Amino acid sequence: METAGNKDFDSETEKKGLGTPATRAGIIEKLVSSGYAVRKGKQILPSTEGRELVNVMPAYLKSAAMTAEWENQLLMMEKGQITDTQFMGEITSLVGKILSVCREIPEVERRRFQKAREVIGKCPVCGSDVYEGKQNFYCYNRQCDFALWKENRFLGSMEKTLDKKMAVELLDKACTHVKGLYSRKKDIKFDADLLLTLEDGKPRFHLEFPKKKKK
C-alpha cells in the first residue's frame, strides 16, 4: 500500500500511496471487524464475504487511480486552483454515481454476496433469510423492519445479551433456554426459558420457568 497508485499522483503531491500508516491501520481493523478480511499469521487476507463484495463492486471503486485523483484534487484546492465548493460538488457527484450503480446491481449478484454469509434462520414476519450483523440479527428483506438486537432492554435488565445460539433457537422454535439471568431485586442468578412473540411485527420477549420434574 505504500506505493499503490504512485504513478497516478501529480509530481507535487506530498502523500504517496494510499493514506497514512495510521489511517491504513484503522481501515484494516474495520475490514477485519466487519468480516471482510481475516488475519492469518502476519498476513491480512480477504474472507469469503470480502471476495464476494469485491466481485460486485464497480471497477473504478477498486482502482488506486481514484484515490490518487482525489489526492491531486486536494492539492489543487490547496493551491487555489479549485474551490472547496467545487471539490465537494465532485464528492457529491461521485456518491450519487456509486448509489446509482449499486441500485443497478442485478438481484442475482446481490444474492451471491448475501449467500456468502451464514443464514441463521427465517424471519417470522416475512419469511426472508435472517443474517447476523454487528449489533443485531436482521431480516434480509429491506421492506421488513424485523430485527433481534444483541443488546436490548429486556435482557439487559437481567445483565444478559442475545447471542447467536439464542437467536437461532428463537427463530426456529420461538423459545430458548437461558442460564445465568440476574435478578437485581433478589440479587440472585437464575435460569429460565426466553420466549419470542410478535406485536405489530415487532419482537417481544417474556420468560417462562420450566416446571421441575417430580422425583
UniProtKB/TrEMBL annotation:
The keyword Isomerase appears for this protein: yes
Keywords assigned by UniProt, alphabetized: Isomerase
Compositional bias ranges of the Basic and acidic residues kind: 1-17
The organism of origin for this protein: Blautia stercoris
Source organism superkingdom: Bacteria
PROSITE patterns: TOPO_IA_2
UniProt domain Topo IA-type catalytic: residue ranges: 1-99
Pfam family, one: Topoisom_bac
Protein name: Topo IA-type catalytic domain-containing protein
Chain positions covered by the region annotation Disordered: 1-20
